[in-house]
Amino acid sequence: MRRTFADRIAGNLAWMLAERAMQVGCGFAIVAMLARALGPDGFAHFQYAQAVVTIAASVALVCSGEVVVPRLVALTGAAAQHRLLAHAFVLRLGGGVLGYALVCGYLWVAGADREVWPIALTLGLAILLREPAGVVTAWMQAHTNNRPGMLISMISLSVKLVLVAALFATGHAAGLGYAGTFALEAVLLAALLGGWYLMRVPCRRVAPEPPLARELIGAGTLFWISFMLMMAARRVDQLILQPAVPLAQFSAYAATMQILDNYAMAATIIAAGVAPLYVYRQTSAAVARRNTARLALALGATGLAGAALIAGMADWIIALLYGERFEAAASLLRVAAFASALVFVDVGLTLVPVYLRKPQWVAAKWAGTLLVVVLFDLIAVPRFGAWGAVAGYAVSNGFAVLTGIVLWWRAGVATRRYAA
Predict the structure, then answer these.
(1) Is there a domain that residue 214 lies in?
(2) Final residue of a domain: which of 173, 208, 243?
(3) What does the pLDDT read at residue 1?
(4) DSSP 8-state symbol, 279
(5) Are residues 365 and 278 located together in one domain of the fold?
(6) How far apart are the first and last CA of the chain?
(7) Residue 119: CB partners within 8 Å, gap ≥ 6?
(8) 53 and 126 in contact (C-beta within 8 Å)?
(9) What DSSP designation does 324 have?
(10) Which of these, 271, 255, 236, lies nearest to 344 by C-alpha position?
(11) Which candidate, 111, 116, 104, 113, places its Cα nearest to that of 59?
(12) 302, 270 Cβ separation under 8 angstroms
């Protein structure tokens, strides 16, 4: 019985890693076609709209899996689980509506170009679909059965890739058309997840229970805040940079960040594969902390080696993915690649507060990181343009790592006091 359970965990992990690896590969392919089809100006508009939507989408994660999954595991009856999922769905849908309104409000306040509005409003439709439908994924995780969700995600991503490729092959050069493929992916994902769930769980009417809703919101507030702060810290540089520089310069920076974001996903793939056995399953906090330090160092070395490779091949990478119109991105990529190695270290160090179940530590780290990047970019970007944003990227990553080291040390102090 124990071996069967371990096999199921290993199988779920394998499917999760395969999905993330596919996301990386498809991400590179899609962004390459977008850049070549839209050109520097069109690509700049698309990436700016996507940055706004990405930040706003974090609002929809009002009741995260960290809150839902443990509660589903504790509930044995299908009716009780359905009741919990129904409330989580409504909360996330409300968060999605708020996030979509935030997109509209920001574009209006910021005076966004008219080319950005239709792209952002179309991309923003995913806010209303992805996270609410994600409660089904949480239900699968609670039942240790991630495979259907991973397959559905892969199918949806494959459809988007095929549609983007079809538009690219026909010479389509309007950002709105490509934004439509992103929205269709979200529609397909939500429809497949919802259909899969309803075929297995009878649709029952659930009476609203305000106490349960308040409990879910209260339990998930720190996770919610942490995620919103993290997404803001990772994308606010583009919101600051876009109105301060010409579109061509912004598109070069956005192209650089697209490459590094996809590259940094390798850190989460490695951590997801190693952490369950190497960190989370440890009964001793001291051992888990020591293993986390080793993993962070290994991830840092891996990230640095990959960064050196990216920097050395920057001209070739930019030419292959984006074409000659984006050659200005090569010099940015050569420098920013080395700053991305810090992301690998940060991913490893973040396992400490996750293991100790200290979401407040994660929230504090991202709040500090967001403050640092905003203050730095507001000073550096007007003076140095994209290079100021690259410097801000390095400084913010360094601050996140430094904060992670402080939290790692603090965890050790707490562990020694508890042992004493």
Answers:
(1) no
(2) 208
(3) 42
(4) I
(5) yes
(6) 38
(7) 45, 46, 49, 175, 176, 179
(8) yes
(9) G
(10) 271
(11) 104
(12) yes
Residues 299 and 380 occupy one common structural domain: yes
Q: What's at 158, amino acid-wise?
A: S
pLDDT at 313 over 80: yes
- Per-residue pLDDT band for 64 (boundaries 50, 70, 90) equals confident
pTM of the model: 0.92
What number of other Cβ atoms are within 10 A of residue 6's Cβ? 11
- What tens digit of pLDDT does each residue of 95-112 get? 999 999 999 999 999 999
**Rg, Å, the chain Cα set:** 22
Q: Distance between CA 236 and CA 112 in Å, rounded? A: 15
Q: How far apart are CA 14 and CA 35, in angstroms?
A: 32
Nearest CA-CA partner of 358 in 27, 41, 51, 66: 66
Closest CA to 248 of 51, 28, 35, 27: 35
Please answer whether residues 336 and 263 qualify as being in contact, where contact means their C-beta atoms are separated by less than 8 angstroms: no
CA 194, distance to chain mean position in Å, is 22
> Using CA atoms, how far apart are residues 410 and 408, in angstroms rounded to an integer?
5
Q: Is 276 exposed, middle or buried (0-12, 13-18, 19+ CB in 10 A)?
A: middle
Any idea how long the chain is? 420
- What's the CA gap between 282 and 151, in Å, rounded? 30
Task: Say if 193 falls within a structural domain.
Answer: yes
Does residue 203 sit in the same domain as residue 291? no
Element spanning 337, H or E: helix 329-349
Domain end marker among 178, 208, 238: 208
- Give how many domains the chain has, as a whole number: 2
146 and 32 in one domain?
yes
Which structure tokens are listed for 130?
């992805």
pLDDT beyond 80 at 203: no
CA 40, 46, 50, 52 dihedral sign is positive
Domain assignment present for 213: no
User: Is the separation of the CB atoms in 120 and 46 below 8 Å?
Assistant: no
Question: How many Cα neighbours within 13 Å face the side chain of 84?
Answer: 25
pLDDT digits (tens, 9 = 90+) for 226-282: 999 999 999 999 999 999 999 999 999 999 999 999 999 889 888 877 887 788 888
Structure tokens at 118: 């239709």
